[in-house]
Amino acid sequence: MALTTDGQVYTWGYAGKVGYFSWMFAQEVGALGHGDKKPYFIPKKVTFFDTIKSKVVQIAAGLYH
Fold first, then answer.
1. 10 touches 4 (CB < 8 A)
2. C-alpha distances in angstroms, 48 versus 9, 11, 20, 24, 35?
3. CA pair distance 2, 20, nearest whole angstrom
4. How far apart are CA 50 and CA 10, in angstroms?
5. How do residues 28-37 score in pLDDT, each as one tens digit?
6. Phi then psi for 49, rounded to 5 degrees?
7. With contact defined as beta carbons under 8 Å apart, do 46 and 14 qualify?
8. CA 57 to chain centre
9. Residue of 38, 34, 35 lying closest to 15 (CA atoms)
């Protein structure tokens, strides 16, 4: 997960239980914020914050955040 200086959030990685690696993750729904369970291995912008016209100032990530 990354936060730009202008408040945009980008995420990448496995998004939840789907496909070959589903046994590795406890996440049942999309965890990357893109509205799906697809894995993204190139940073993809989370557009939700644009739709509600919000600027993100801080993020937290990890298993126990």
1. yes
2. 9, 12, 28, 27, 9
3. 26
4. 12
5. 566 788 888 7
6. -70, -30
7. no
8. 16
9. 38
Q: How many angstroms separate the CA atoms of 65 and 60, rounded? A: 6
What type of residue sits at position 2? A
What's the pLDDT tens digit per position in 12-54? 987 766 655 555 555 556 678 888 878 899 999 999 999 999 9
For the record, the structure tokens of 33 come out as 């914020």
In eight-state DSSP terms, residue 4 is -
What is the DSSP code (8-state) at residue 21? Answer: T
Cα–Cα distance measured from residue 65 to residue 38, given in angstroms and rounded to the nearest whole number: 22
